[in-house]
C-alpha cells in the first residue's frame, strides 16, 4: 500500500501531470483575480479557452483514441451554438430545452455522418467529414430568418436552476467544472476496456475484429460521444458570446481544433488543454504585437510541431526521461502522446 501511495505521489510530481494541474488551478483563480483587478476581459478570454479546450478534448476522443482524423467537428460546435440560438429566437430560455436539443441534434447527426464516414478510411474519411461540415455551414447560411450569413444575436440565454449562462462568471464556472470532469472521464476511459479497444482499433482494426470486438461499432460510438461533447462546448460558446454564426461551422474551425490537439499531444489526457491554451494564448499575444500576426503565427505553429512531434506533453515527458533515465520506460506508458497515427488508408 505504501509503495502504491508513493507511486501515485511521484506520478503527480511529474511535469506532464503537474503542469496541467497547475494550469487548472490558475484557471480556477482567474475570476477572483479579474474581480479584484476590475478586468472582466480576462474572464471572457479564459472562458473561451476553456470552452475550446472542451471541444478539443472531444475531438481527441475520436482523433487521439480512435485515430479518426475528422475535419468536420465544427459541424457539432455549430449545432450546439444554434441549439441555444434557435429556441431563444422563439423566446425559450430553458437551458434544459437547449441541452436536449443539443444532445439530440448532435447525437443524431453524429450517428448518421459517422456511420457513412466510417465506411471509408484515410483521405476519403477526412474529405467526407469536411463535406458534411460544409453542408451544415451552407444550410445555416441559407436560413435568412435566423440571420443567415450574418448570424443571430441571442437575447435569451440558457437558464439552469435559476442560473443564467449568459453571465460571464456563471458560464466560466460551469465550463471549468465540465472541463475538469471531462478530463477525469477521459483519463478513466483511456485505461478502460472501451478505451483499449479504441486504441487497438487505431493501430490495427483487423486484429481487433479477429479477437471478437467490432471495431467499427466502437469507433462509431466514440465518434457520436465526441460529437455530443463538442456540441455542448458550442452551447457554452453561444451563451458566452450571446451570438451564433455559421462561421462556427467553417472548416477553419475544424482545422483549429486539430491543431490544438496536435499541439498539446494527440491521444494524451491533458494535451488538448495545453494545446488550446498555447494556441489561443499565442494568438492573443501576437495580435497585441502586430496587425500582421497571422504571418508570424503560422511559422511558429509549424516550428513547435517540428520540435515536438508528440506535442507539449511529449516535450514534458522527454524532460522527465532525462531527469530520471531509469524510469523513462515507465513514464512513457501512462500518458504517452501517441503521435504515430496509422498511415492513411491502413486503418482498416
From TrEMBL:
It comes from the Bacteria. Signal peptide: none annotated. It holds the Pfam family BPD_transp_2. It is found in: Cell membrane. One of its GO terms (molecular function) is branched-chain amino acid transmembrane transporter activity. Residues 326-348 are annotated as: Disordered. The chain crosses the membrane at residues 45-63, 70-90, 96-116, 123-143, 169-187, 217-237, 257-282, 294-316. This is Amino acid/amide ABC transporter membrane protein 2, HAAT family. It comes from Noviherbaspirillum humi. The lineage of its organism: Bacteria, Pseudomonadati, Pseudomonadota, Betaproteobacteria, Burkholderiales.
Amino acid at each position: 500500500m505504501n509503495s502504491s501511495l508513493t507511486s501515485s505521489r511521484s506520478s503527480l510530481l511529474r511535469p506532464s501531470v503537474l503542469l496541467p494541474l497547475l494550469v487548472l488551478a490558475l484557471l480556477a483563480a482567474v475570476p477572483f483575480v479579474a474581480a479584484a483587478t476590475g478586468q472582466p476581459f480576462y474572464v471572457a478570454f479564459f472562458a473561451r479557452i476553456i470552452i475550446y479546450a472542451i471541444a478539443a478534448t472531444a475531438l481527441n476522443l475520436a482523433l487521439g483514441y480512435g485515430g479518426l482524423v475528422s475535419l468536420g467537428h465544427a459541424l457539432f460546435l455549430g449545432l450546439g451554438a444554434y441549439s441555444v440560438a434557435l429556441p431563444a429566437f422563439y423566446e425559450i430560455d430553458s437551458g434544459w430545452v437547449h441541452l436536449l436539443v443539443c444532445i439530440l441534434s448532435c447525437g443524431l447527426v453524429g450517428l448518421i455522418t459517422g456511420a457513412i464516414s466510417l465506411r471509408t478510411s484515410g483521405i476519403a474519411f477526412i474529405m467526407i467529414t469536411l463535406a458534411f461540415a460544409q453542408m451544415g455551414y451552407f444550410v445555416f447560411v441559407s436560413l435568412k430568418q435566423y440571420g443567415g450569413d450574418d448570424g443571430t444575436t441571442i437575447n435569451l440565454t440558457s437558464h439552469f436552476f435559476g442560473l443564467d449562462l449568459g453571465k460571464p462568471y456563471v458560464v466560466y464556472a460551469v465550463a471549468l467544472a465540465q472541463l475538469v470532469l471531462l478530463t477525469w472521464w477521459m483519463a478513466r476511459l483511456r485505461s478502460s476496456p472501451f478505451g483499449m479497444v479504441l486504441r487497438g482499433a487505431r493501430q490495427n482494426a483487423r486484429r481487433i475484429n479477429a479477437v471478437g470486438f467490432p471495431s467499427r461499432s466502437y469507433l462509431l460510438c466514440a465518434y457520436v460521444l465526441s460529437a455530443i461533447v463538442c456540441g455542448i462546448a458550442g452551447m457554452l460558446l453561444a451563451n458566452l458570446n450571446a451570438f451564433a454564426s455559421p462561421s462556427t461551422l467553417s472548416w477553419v474551425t475544424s482545422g483549429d481544433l486539430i491543431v490544438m490537439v496536435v499541439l498539446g499531444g494527440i491521444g494524451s489526457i491533458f494535451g488538448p488543454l495545453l494545446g488550446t491554451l498555447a494556441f489561443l494564448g499565442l494568438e492573443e499575444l501576437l495580435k497585441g504585437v502586430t496587425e500582421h500576426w497571422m504571418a508570424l503565427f503560422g511559422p511558429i505553429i509549424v516550428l513547435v510541431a517540428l520540435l515536438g512531434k508528440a506535442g507539449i506533453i511529449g516535450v514534458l515527458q522527454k524532460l522527465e526521461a532525462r531527469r530520471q533515465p531509469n524510469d523513462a520506460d515507465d513514464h512513457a506508458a501512462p500518458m504517452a502522446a501517441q503521435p504515430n497515427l496509422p498511415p492513411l488508408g491502413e486503418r482498416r
